[in-house]
Amino acid sequence: MILSNLVQAKLLKRYKRFLADVEFRDGTVVTAHCPNPGSMLGMCDAGMNAYLSHSADPKRKLPWTLKLVECPSSLVVVDTMLANKLFKEAFELGRLTEFSRFDQILSEQVFSDSRFDFLLSHSSSGTKACYVEVKSATMWQDGRALFPDARTERGRKHLATLSKAVADGFDACQFYLVGRSDAQSFSTADDIDPLYGQALKLAKQQGVTVAVRALEFNYLNLDKEKIAAGLPFDMALSVGGVVSVVLSED
Prior knowledge:
This protein is an alpha+beta fold. It has helices at 82-92, 153-167, 194-205, 224-228, and strands at residues 2-15, 19-24, 29-33, 49-54, 64-71, 74-77, 104-111, 114-121, 130-137, 139-141, 144-147, 171-178, 185-188, 209-219, 233-242, 244-245.
């Protein structure tokens, strides 16, 4: 996936969840859309480098959108809507070896009382179809990616319904896309939402597969000095390597 014509700015503050004030190289300050409903712990400190895209759509109240921030050890994706697009792209390119038994993908599929991100299937074999729910994990501590960064009753419901899908004869997977490149492992953030951690362990025991992948970033057409000078550039995002899952035994 290519993010085109990104521009670097300095993050001033993020507020009301979906708003962020940024300052461009020339001193211009604008309010940008922040497409992330989470707490963004460790990702919205004043002074961080931020990377934004611009829309020429006259109907938009906020033409600038915050896409990435630069943490000390990695770029981090802000836009949670990118996770599903990246998963679908990686699947269609054959990069997700854990799903190599499937050759078809459908988006936004309903099962029971939940809507899952994807349903994977095979066009000719008797392979069981697999419901997949994708979550974007961006919180990080000491080399470990963590999820969730806020309490999520909806996330717990998804896990329970994935377990129901397994009981009804489907395969099911909770897939976490770590929106940064500096994670060596993944765990649930039990200090934030211990019930979610318990729900994930239960779902895993009931046959739900847990898979985690990290993102890779690649500057395409400019060096970092020119980017810092405020020149637009393109960034390639791709689903990278497998990240190990560490769940507590409690």
